[in-house]
């Protein structure tokens, strides 16, 4: 482990005293191997929000790492030409590397393009290279252009890697790549940043999800909302949190991810925050969120 574990208490988030929080942290650090429950069925979750910088990639890679560290097999599909998820998971994504682009073209299988992350033997990533930048336009003229990722993620194709969880990290747009992700998944996870403009654009996202539900993927549900970058010093963060909980109820995870420098530093080292500083507040929060995701997945199928 690198770095300090004694971060200041996020009392505003948890409502715990610093001592209680430290005790809980020590317990969790002592039992890193406790397994999370397997889902009742393979869960394919699209992480979407057309706003950039809300924590899609950070949430994708850290939830994925949290689940993988606790015994579950996880595949991350990096569907953003920026390749940030590939970077954070430390997988090669130089131009020419077999990637999600070739997967969309039907030239390689997901199993062939997937690389094991050095952060866990259970954690795989299909990287995105810069080649994906043109895909949004190239897809327009392709046959079954909205369903190419779904076809690539057929049960048969996934059986080779046999993941319990597949996370698809979307680009910050509602274009064809995001539509492909929504058609390929059963669930959408929406990260919402606890800031003023957070709710702006959300109705557009929800309308698009409804369109996909109506025309392309009847079984799609918004299963999970994750509040990110919570700053306990601002009243605004609480207002956004309350408003989101009021609108979306149980869909919102109890765990809120605090704004934390360690979280933003980790990708610079090609790591998730769980690998970079496992004792940090950000890492602990993502671990709690991953546990919640796993516990929900182990309940009766939705
Ligand atoms: P998106 O994928 O939605 O564009 P990112 O996950 O890349 O968003 O996050 C945007 C930026 O904010 C990144 O630089 C990331 O490191 C940083 N960031 C994300 N979550 C946090 C957090 N909880 N605390 C501090 N910085 C964060
Ligand atoms: Mg991103």
Automatic annotation (TrEMBL):
Pfam families: AAA_31. CDD domains: ParAB_family. Residues 43-221 form the AAA domain. InterPro entries: AAA_dom (IPR025669), DNA_Partitioning_ATPase (IPR050678), P-loop_NTPase (IPR027417). May play a role in septum formation. Belongs to the ParA family. This is Chromosome partitioning protein. It comes from Actinokineospora iranica.
